[in-house]
Amino acid sequence: MRLLLVEDDAMIGEALEATLREASYAVDWVRDGLMATTALKTHGYELVLLDLGLPGKDGITLLRQLREDGHATPVVIITARDNVEDRILGLDVGADDYVLKPFDAKELLARMRAVLRRKAGAAAPVLSNGIVSLDPATHQATSPEAEPSILSNREFALLNALMVRPGAILSRSELEDRVYGWGEEVDSNAIEFLIYTLRKKLGSSAIQNVRGVGWMVAQA
Amino acid sequence: MSYSIRKRLSWSLSLSIVLVATISGGLSYVGARIKANDRQDDTLRQVAQLVRLQTPDMLSVREAGNDDDTTDYHIGIEPINPPPNWPASHEQRQWPSDLSPGMHSVQLDDDNYQVMVTPVKGGALFAVFQETDIRKHIANSSAWRAIVPLLILIPILLLVVNDLLRRLLAPINELSQAVNQRDNDDTSALPLLLLPTEVQPVVLATNRLLSRLGESMQAQRRFIADAAHELRTPMTALSLQAQRLEAIALPADARVRLQALLTGITRTRHLLDQLLNLARIQNAMPASANKSASAAPLTTPVKASFTRVLENTLNGARTKQIDLGVSDAPADEVNVRANEDNLDSIVRNLVDNAIRYTPKGGQIDVSLRIEHAHAIISVQDSGPGIEPSERLRVLDPFYRVLGTEQLGTGLGLAIVSTLLQQLNGSLVLTDRADGGTGLLAQVRLPLAH
Fold first, then answer.
1. ipTM of the complex as predicted
2. Within chain A, which residue ranges are assigned CATH 1.10.10.10?
3. Hey, which of A81, B82, B116, B345 would disulfide with A86, CB 3.0 to 4.6 Å?
């Protein structure tokens, strides 16, 4: 998978290029906005990592032109500009994500994967947080602590709600909204019961309780 | 010592007016009286001139009733030594017999008289006289008439002067009120329009000072932004390089050292973030706050903020086997007057601190309740707590309680307390109410309407 890295700082550029190569990406590294424009015209990239403070042409201008020319290539901004205004501007102009320096290499790679996944649409049908995985097509859930099992519709709806964003805490009422339709009668302990059955199928640590707030599945 | 120009001017002008009015009124009064007396003496003399041309007989035929009709002047004519044929009906006063011709003041019984003695035809002396009381009465009333306009005009003058003062000083009052109601960080120029020229130099100088202050605040903010960029870039490179080492097969002791290195880098990154946060908060201008308000609403749900903070801190808590959760909160969502970033930052810093200082296996309770139109957000831990004498000092940047080995930045509580100042909230650090050891941090924030 071929990436364009637009970064003017030599130290960061070198380190990032090496990190990305180690993660099995093909990387083209350019140091200014004008070269980035040329590179984008001549090669097809699956993802652009874009610094904002660039010589030649500012990152925001570059991104705006890219979008005006009709390029849908996913762009992840990597910058030290941490103002809310800058972040909003970057996303509004057409960035797919905004990563603040200094960042964690693992986090950057995870965000790149997420952006690529979103771009591919339903290309990654199986949801996974690294421990539990859930296949929306077959309602099959697997976990290292238990045998693979097929979930009931309600169990699937609940686990699916949690697996969409591992690490996010959902309250009882949020889960009820996701599991039950409008006007359906909900027992006061219905959610607890579903979680109990899910834990029986997937192991007790698959779904974690956060005292006073709700439930979550662990983040990868 | 402070004083009001208006009050001073008002008092001193009023006092001067009253003083001048009293003196001039007194002088006119006295003058008018003297003049009235002189005029009455003249009248006596003129009457005496006429009497001088008469014979005693002619003078005696005056109707007796005339005395009572002449109430305005009360001028009487009597012989000093009444001749035998003088009408007995007349109330004849016993004039001293030794009165010489000319003007005299005479006392008879209890009455005083002004008397002009004059010889008439035939040589007899006659007295043309007027009672002193009547003369005084006439003099007084004409003196009063002289000062009546003054008495009417002085109160009007006082009212006019005070009203004028009020009007003239109104722009200065308005200016000082406008200055008073300003935000601390507002460095925009004060209005010069409609100000008296005497005050304009002061306002101009203040405006110059304000603009210089604004510029230096701006320079400081620019410096922070530049510093952020400059520090973040090498930190990113350093962090990436160190992380690349992780992927390489290393001897066990090298791996231990790498972990220490990575921890140090993480800590530095955190410190850098917190330092820049604090600097940005301290330099937050109302103008920029308004700008971001359009992007992020100035009312934020607290329970949603709890959820976000817990999502970000649970991993750290679980690594230390700390039970972190929400112990008490109203069923309905509660909104406070703060933007999302600031509220999250407050809750996050308190929870981070609690995790840092709570020993393994401890418990941290976050809670929310409503009290007098304020939301009370509490974070209670089972750590060692903070000595009462240290509780104010821990709010200072970089202050850390001695003897703790925790790797905090020393900025968390400073950030919380600075944010709360800007949000009209407050932070109270106390012992736990249930008697257990640990710190109870209570944040008070105004509810959003």
1. 0.71
2. 127-216
3. A81
